[in-house]
Amino acid sequence: MAAGKKREAYIFVLPAFIYILFVLGYPLIYNVYLSLRNVDVKNLTKGGDVFIGLQNYIDLFKNPTFLLVLKNTFVFTIACLLFQFTIGFALALFFYQKFRLSGPIRGVLLVSYMIPMSVTGLLGKNIFSNAGLVNNLLSKIGIIGPEWLVNTSTALIAVIIMNCWVGIPFNMLLLISGLTSITPDVYESASIDGANWLQRFWYITVPLMKSSMLSVLMLGFIYTFRAFDLMYIMTAGGPLNSTDVLGTYSYMLSFTQYKFSQGSAVAMVLFGCLFIVGLFYLRLLSKED
Amino acid sequence: MKKIIGGKEAARDLRNSVIAVVLAILFLFPVYWMMQISFKSDAETFGKVLSYYPREFTVYPWLVNLQDKTFLLSLRNSFINGFLTMGITLLLGVPAAYGMGRYRVKGSSVFLLTFLVCQMLPASLTLTPMYLIFNKIHFLGTHFTAPVAIAGASIPFAIITLRPYFKSVPVALDEAARLDGCGPLKAFFYVMIPAVKTGIVTIVVISFLNGWNDLVYSMTFNVGETMRPLTANIYKFQNAYGTKWNCIMAYGTILVLPVILLFIFLQKYIVGGLVAGAVKD
Question: Hey, which end of chain B has fewer CB within 10 Å, N or C?
Answer without folding.
Answer: N
